[in-house]
Amino acid sequence: MKCLLHHVDPEKDEQLKGSKLDYLASLSKVREAKEIIRKLKRESERTERRKSKLVVENDVLRHKPKSAAKMEAEVNRRLEDLNRENNNLIPQKRYGC
């Protein structure tokens, strides 16, 4: 009976070990890249939600000056009306009308 021993060439063995190490290093880098991508996606989603909120807030703030200007105009008109009414009442009071 002949014993079959597998003879391993030391040079090829080193090449295989080197290839395996390269493969494991590459696999590690791929996993690391996937983790970075996952984190960046989450950050992007958070940023997008924040951006949406800020767009709404900006729209509200843009309309406030218009509303305030309308309100100011209305208050000024009412003040003018009251001043006219007051000016009309002063002579009536003076002359007892």
From TrEMBL:
Keywords: Coiled coil. One of its GO terms (cellular component) is cytoskeleton. The keyword Coiled coil applies. Residues 30-88 form a coiled coil. It comes from the Eukaryota. GO terms for molecular function: structural constituent of cytoskeleton. This is Uncharacterized protein. It comes from Gossypium stocksii.
